[in-house]
Amino acid sequence: MTHISAPGRWTAERANGWYANLPWLVGANFVPSTASNQLEMWQVETFDAQVIERELGWAAELGMNTMRVFLHDLLWAEDADGFRERVDRYLDIAAGKGISTMLVLFDSVWNPDVALGPQPEPRPGVHNSQWVQGPGRALADRGQWGRLRDYVEGIVGAFADDERVLVWDVWNEPSNLNGGRFAEPDNKRELVSELLPQVFEWARAAGPSQPLTSGVWSGKTLYDDPHARIQIENSDVISFHDYQTPERFEAKLLDLPRDRPLFLTEFMARTPGSTFAGILPIAKREKIASYCWGLVAGRSQTLYPWDSWTVSYVDNPPHPWFHDVFHTDGTPYRADEVALVRQVMGRD
């Protein structure tokens, strides 16, 4: 099958040359334990630099050297200058601990009904119960696409030459329909097919020195998923998600393009068999940048499994935890896991 590259896409040679100068990258998808979603992380009333500094410090002690962090378009629309200042503050904290950051522009996962201001309290025992989509309902309103373009060009342009920013992930799981948990537009997939290439174009128009990506997530690849095809053919570096056993993870690698650097931007769900012990040795052997889901168990409640949306865990906490590495006091959930991370990162 012919591979098509979007205009402005980095050549494979450029992407590989850029990646060759980096250490092996290992980190987490980071939201501070005090935030239930992207808005609580970044809004001025709930942005907590002290918590961010403390929790990134625990990650750095393990040898983690990168984080993946979600932004939101409404924050830019409300107060672009203030949002930019808070992102700059976060990047200062992370860089001070030797941590680079992949910034995520949009996300199609969980609740599409999103509003600024105080966020609802997390639903007890429910995985990511207050996580919100971006652009959410605005995806189905072409009248708002100009605003979305302003956000993409504005935030990427603001940090286009910033060495603290590693990669731009333009859209997380863009065609995710969220298992019917929310009322999604009937034509969500068609809208994504139209808007996703434009988001790549807008990001490139801002002239970033960093590569762009959007991760293949549904278990399908370039060859049988039209959205994966759009993602791969527009990405400078190839990113993907995998929450499977080591054997299935290795099989997935055979289906992905290998002419560019690979970023495993989501892994580590203990119940399905995706663990640090199973995945990190393979990723190190292949020099695949790897980001577990979750760092500190908190308001995102991702220690609970995906099925907690329908199965109650309030009186029966999950064993093992689904995601996350630390308790809120910094105690590791599993000492053997953090010892392994330290060992593979050369911290011992």
Automatic annotation (TrEMBL):
Asked if the Swiss-Prot or TrEMBL record annotates the protein with the keyword Hydrolase, the reply is yes
Gene3D superfamilies in the record, alphabetically?
Glycosidases
Which residues lie in coiled coils?
none
Keyword Ribonucleoprotein carried by entry:
no
Entry-linked InterPro entries = GH (IPR017853), Glyco_hydro_5 (IPR001547)
Specify the superkingdom. Bacteria
Keywords of the record, alphabetical order, are:
Glycosidase, Hydrolase
Domain Glycoside hydrolase family, by residue range, is 60-246
Q: Which GO terms describe its molecular function?
A: hydrolase activity, hydrolyzing O-glycosyl compounds
Q: Which Pfam families match?
A: Cellulase (PF00150)
GO BP: any one term: polysaccharide catabolic process
Which protein family is named in the record? Belongs to the glycosyl hydrolase 5 (cellulase A) family.
Identification of the protein by name: Cellulase family glycosylhydrolase
- Organism encoding this protein: Devosia ureilytica
